[in-house]
Fold:
Amino acid sequence: MLGGESFVALAEGLQNALWSLGGVPREHRTDSLSAAFRNLDQPAEDDLTRRYEALCAHYGMTPTRNNAGLAHENGAVEGPHGHLKRAIADALLLRATSAFPDLPAYRAFIDELVGRRNARNAKRIDSERAVLQPLPPRRSCDYEEVSVRVTSAGGFRVRKVFYTVPSRLIGHRLRVRLYDDRLDVLIGGTHLFTLPRGRARPNGQHDQVVDYRHVIHALRRKPMALLNLVYRDRLFPREAYRQTFEAMRAALPERQACRLTVDLLALAHERGCEAELAACLAADHAAGRLPDIAALRARFAPDPATIPHVTVALGSLSHYEDLLGAATGAA
Structure:
């Protein structure tokens, strides 16, 4: 759960478990879910309660919860949970690093570990499947939906996080579905794209989820805006771009540094060479030299041999007159 205890996290995790199991138990027990309801006003807490009850009703389960003050009631669940956490810690020690390239890689690591542990209980699980209820025809809703308007800044704000979107959407009202790890953005009933979900900072300050491809065209018109962008640190897609910008600020006038940095970002976007360009910038930074934008443009320019030569043969006007004459005669 990326955002702690919440209805979205509970609904997604519970439904993933049920569909992996292939059936539904008759009862679902939770703790008091106090963390999910903390800092909510009464209407919001009542809404979450109704949504949880609707989720259980969709699967035909009876929702129950532990009695307050009797922590031992859920010991059968908390014990295995603690064992799993220790197994994950041990597996990370054997792996020698807790760094993963991305979230899907970490999830694959967890899925493999849990799969091996569940294989030990395969016979017990198979025996219990006989008394499980059948799954419903489809999953229930495991997201929250909000309506937002794209501001002139080229983005929208949800839950203390600012998200950039393509500038063509400025002024449009969008539907945003909030999942635990992502946002699906729709206009009307049409899905536009998916964004990674951001979280407010631990101290309560707002945060940003920025894609430089969304704002690069506006920055090319006003490159000096890069200097005081609130989300400038989020703008750079890789560390090499940020290091290059800081090096150019130290060696060049600010206007020239901003212009060259925007040109580098535009080159990465237009030529589809973000990773390769980052490697070149990192090499320049390690050597203590500034990038040569002309040489980089030539390096990442399209190969003339791969550009097809297209010849368009225009028809004679007399051919169109013949067609019109034929159509008139047929009429």
In short: Residues 15 and 318 are 68 Å apart (CA to CA). The chain has a mean pLDDT of 85.
